[in-house]
Specification:
Helix content is 41%, strand content 17%. The chain has 322 residues and is α/β, with parallel strands linked by helices. The strands form four sheets. A seven-stranded parallel sheet has the order 3-2-1-4-5-6-11, with helices on both faces. Strands 7-10 form a two-stranded parallel sheet. Helix 1 links the parallel strand 1 and strand 2. Helix 3 packs parallel to helix 5 and helix 7 packs across helix 9. The chain is globular and about 60 Å long.
């Protein structure tokens, strides 16, 4: 089986490549190694792929998934799966540069969809693409289910992901290529981007600098999902891709922000220094996935509770920070 992953050097992409290679898949993929954020230098992405570079079943293409070199590979190579993870991520930065988010997450994705449309192997190819829990916006009914109205996103990032779901549906109808959209819920774990909350909290606690907690005096809730459970969810979905469907991948157990920060502090044997801040635009106060649909279809069951996930992340941080 042959798989192509966009964003293969990123947080989720690199873990997925590791899993697929361990299961005997042939893995191709592309990444720009762009410095996404001042605190996320490209050397971290290069570290993510370094262990696989000598694997004969691993082929890395350095480039954008919308560039001609990459789309030519997709139109001339028989892939069983294309897994589209590459995106410009983050809710708050999208408020400052919305054009970049729509260009990267939607317009460039059209190039990928057109390549699949023009591939003579499209009859055998299945597409799995990354959406986000952000598409639920300000929905106040919990847990969030896939059939809910998500027509009111709160940020350009969320809007770009919702638009991606819609354009993928359109190309599914045009091409008959089976497509699954996966709405990930607050993924964390080793290799996560340094600008993500848990990574920032851990570094701040380690260095004794203040942590800014946004919204309702810090009382926000997130459905934190450990990276291995996300990867297992993707792997489960690969077993049966048909038609066009959307699935949540999360734990379904939201954790309050103060509780999460305290858990990190406990594992680091340090007391967090917190500053309460007003809620930021574009962010919901709570996220919670309903995972009944993916459980019923794929027997998916997340295994890592957040206490264990935080312990694993802190252990990794301590070993890798230098």
């Amino acid at each position: 089986m042959k798989v192509f992953i966009t964003g293969i050097a990123g947080f989720i992409g690199s873990h997925l490549a590791d899993k697929l290679l361990s299961e005997g898949y042939e893995v191709w993929g592309c990444d720009t190694f762009e410095q996404y954020h001042p605190k996320y230098p490209s050397k971290l992405k290069r570290r993510n792929v370094s262990n696989n570079l000598n694997n004969p079943k691993y082929k890395l293409i350095e480039g954008d998934f919308s560039e001609e070199e990459v789309t030519k590979i997709i139109t001339t190579t028989a892939f069983d799966y294309v897994i589209h993870l590459a995106a410009h991520a983050g809710v708050r930065p999208s408020l400052d540069d919305p054009e970049k988010y729509y260009q990267n997450n939607l317009i460039k994705s059209l190039s990928l969809l057109r390549a699949l449309e023009n591939s003579p192997y499209r009859w055998r190819t299945k597409l799995i693409f990354a959406s986000s829990s952000s598409v639920y916006g300000g929905v106040k009914v919990f847990p969030w289910e896939e059939n809910m109205n998500v027509s009111k996103p709160l940020s350009p990032y969320a809007g770009s992901k919702k638009a991606l779901e819609e354009i993928c549906y359109t190309y599914h109808k045009l091409t008959d290529i089976p497509m699954l959209g996966l709405r990930f819920f607050t993924v964390y774990g080793p290799r996560q981007r340094p600008d993500m909350a848990i990574a920032k909290f851990t570094k701040a606690i380690d260095e004794g600098t203040p942590i800014r907690l946004y919204g309702s005096q810090g009382q926000t809730f997130r459905d934190y999902t450990y990276i291995s459970d996300i990867i297992e969810g993707i792997f489960c979905c690969m077993s049966d891709v048909k038609g066009f469907e959307i699935f949540n991948i999360g734990r379904g157990e939201p954790v309050e922000l103060h509780e999460m920060v305290a858990e990190i502090g406990m594992h680091m044997f340090k007391i967090p220094n917190c500053e309460e801040m007003e809620v930021q635009a574009g962010e919901p106060e709570k996220t919670q996935a309903s995972i009944s649909k993916i459980k019923e279809r794929y027997d998916y069951s997340p295994e890592v509770p957040y206490q264990e996930g935080i312990k694993r992340y802190v252990d990794w941080y301590q070993k890798s920070k230098n």
